[in-house]
Amino acid sequence: MDQTLANTNRPPYGILAILMIGAFISFLNNTLLNVALPSIMVDLHVDTATVQWSTTGYMLINGILIPTTAFLIQKYSVRRLFLVAMSLFTAGTIIAGMADVFGVLLAARMVQASGSAIMMPLLMNVMLVSFPVEKRGTAMGVFGLILMFAPAIGPTLSGWIIEHYDWRMLFHFITPIAALILIFGYFLLKDKKEKVEIHLDAISVILSTIGFGSLLYGFSSAGNEGWGSPFVYGTIILGAIALVFFIRRQSRLEKPMLNFNVFKYPMFSLASAITMILNMALFSGFMLLPIYAQTIRGISPMETGLMLLPGALLNAAMSPVTGRLFDKFGGRILSIIGLAITAVTTYLFSQLSFETTYLNLVVLHAVRMLGMSMVMMPVSTNGLNQLPRSYYPHGTAMNNTLNQVSAAIGTAFLITIMSIREKAYADELMRDVAGQPTADVQQQIMMEAMLGGIDDTFLVATFLTGIALILAFFIKRAKPADEPIEKKQPSKKLAKAIGD
User: Fold this and answer.
1) CA-CA distance, 129 to 392, in Å (whole number)?
2) CA angle, residues 169, 171, 177, in degrees to nearest 5
3) How far is CA 491 from CA 496, 498, 499, in A?
4) What are the Cα distances from residue 4, in Å, to 1, 123, 195?
């Protein structure tokens, strides 16, 4: 870790502030786009399964690059990594603002993601080494408050912009802010890094890229190609095989790119399982609700943003509260209550109809976000607390990798379920119509079919949340483990002498 951070007894608030602002812009960019998806579908002439790539593609690049961040954090200074990350993010934002075809928008999102992939693990690692365990929950709560303010203002801001301007203005709005943060970071970040003799294993990078990339691409392609396509299950199988070889190689390396020994610590493993399941269930809702509100109910983008605002504000406001509660009571009781709330509200979302009131949507989403705020940060922090200090870069990298992979797979999987169920409902309704249906009847059938698909998808998400709730009962308050004793590999000469 950087000497500036390792040798100080006072948390580096200046560095943390700059990193948080950078992460805030990254979060804001994501929440801005969710409400814009229906507008992008119309303007660029793409369907639901295709437009979800603007989100899934972002996660795909994150999933590929985040495994390398443990190496990057150990090798380079915070200043250097931040400047590279913000430069990539700013460049991607500029390109996205000029996109006139979906392919260009997707490429720009991937450039943005290459910067964002570095940002979050870097910030999390600085947080972990800057605060002692007994104050970490409160610190993470304040951190969550700042970052969750982005989802609070993002949908409403996005709705207002889309109603008055083209969706590309979302990126034009972010560009000067990102550029200013980059300039401030250049002049204000001054931390130093001792020269570290560590090298990135090229074979590990290749296996990681093929593994995570193929797995995410296969799941994401299922919406367009169908689960029976050889291309879909072929890439998933290829990804799984590459990941097996990647994991085996990491266990043999003296300094692995991504240290899977973090899973020897049970609370970290349990936290990873819970957050992965919850990510799969929750990320789909962030996409489905704007589609339901705007496409099925005809609610304007601005009103859609306002619909999501109370939930996002509640999530942000609860972040420091849950941080303090975590320091006092631990993560078990918080996660059980939070997951129970999330499961119930997700089930109620599976009962959406053409008559569901706007107020009902606002309240349900707000309560669902309340439940979410009681789970994510406490569970993740409790898992990371059990790791020894030297494992922090690997723990944060693993956490972020699994979050991105699970969110991408979950989004693709549930959007695919929606597409399959929507088609099944449409075929069934068409068979019940005598003769050739009129254009109005066809439109009504498609709306009913889409609503049925969305309801079924939320039902599956309820089941996933229920699994996470069961796992939450096994959470125990974690304490930092002792540093592992490094087993040095014998030199080749010594190994030969032993063999002789």
Assistant:
1) 8
2) 110
3) 9, 11, 12
4) 9, 15, 14
Interacting residues of 250 by C-beta distance below 8 A, sequence separation 6+: 204, 256, 257, 258, 259, 260
Dist. CA 438–CA 401, nearest whole Å: 49
pLDDT over 90 percentage in the chain: 14
> In the CATH scheme, what is the homologous superfamily, with its name and number, of domain 3-201+253-499?
MFS general substrate transporter like domains (1.20.1250.20)
pTM of the predicted model over 0.85: no
Residue 353 CB burial class (10 angstroms; 0-12, 13-18, ≥19): exposed
DSSP 224: H
pLDDT tens digit string along 428-484? 888 877 667 777 778 888 888 889 999 999 999 999 999 999 999 998 887 777 677
Place of tokens 């996933």: 464
Kindly report the number of other CB atoms within 10 A of residue 429's CB atom: 18
Contact (Cβ atoms closer than 8 angstroms) between residue 462 and residue 343: yes
- Furthest C-alpha separation in the chain: 87
Closest listed residue to residue 394, CA positions, set 198, 215, 255:
255
Task: Choose among 233, 221, 261, 262: nearest CA to 415.
Answer: 221
Instruction: Specify whether the CB–CB gap between 379 and 335 falls below 8 A.
Output: yes
Tokens 């019940």: give the residue: 432
- Alpha-carbon span 354 to 364, nearest angstrom: 16
